[in-house]
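Deliverable D5.2: sample structural annotation.
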Amino acid sequence: MMTDDVTIPVDVAPVEIAQERRTPSPTQRKVVFDIRDLAVTYGPTTAISGVDLEIYGNLITAFIGPSGCGKSTFIRSLNRMNDLVPGAKVDGRVLYHGQDIYGDGVDPVEVRRRIGMVFQRANPFPKSIYDNVAWGPRVLGMKKALDERVEKALTRAALWDEVKDRLKKSALSLSGGQQQRLCIARAIAIEPEVLLLDEPASALDPIATAAIEELMHDLKDQYTIVIVTHNMQQAARVADMTAFFSLQVEEGKRTGILVEYENTDKLFTNPADKRTEDYVTGRFG
């Protein structure tokens, strides 16, 4: 464990931290998720264990760490997507505005309506651009003023001006970056409070990646955003808070654990744990 006065060595190329980011002080943050002693297992395999943290409203929270450390498993536990994985079991508490989303009588469909998710690779339906965005509202019976809802979602996803004259065209005709923004529009069309983004730019070129990152900044005033990324520069550019997950190996078994969770600039420039420093400086991972 490192003391608070440890800084990143000057001989290591620093991660560029986004400028002019003002993360609210702890007393001013609104707790959206309160996670306590969370563990997720797939059959005999423990993916993550002992995770304790809070996720705050209208901030971007990034999860970084080596492959296989449970980052995606963790965010899928925030909207019960792990329920869809055979053999998955979730223990601990995931409180959303104080209510345990795994409690008796909680409807997982309603959980996923409030907590939307966008996956690593864009997955538009083989339908028109309009029908992709309208699909969720139609399924949920939110059919009033559907045209306006679709336009609003596409506008928020910074896509409206690019597609407004071809809404009846196939979504598969869009570029990769446009498809990913379409998936974000599809997620926000049903008015969630939270957006979970699992490696949303990993398959995109730098220009499309920059567009997704700019979009996240634009959306955080309206949504709480949680992102998994392998790209530490991306986490440094977009995130207000960053959590570092790593692997703990005991008796030949590998388990994902939360090592450190802090304001992004502090985690990258003055980490409290040696394992975090080794990862962000490229010595490990």
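Annotation notes: The chain has one domain: 26-280. Strands lie at 31-42, 45-56, 60-64, 88-96, 99-100, 115-118, 194-198, 224-228, 241-250, 253-263.
The annotation will be released with the project's public dataset once the embargo ends.
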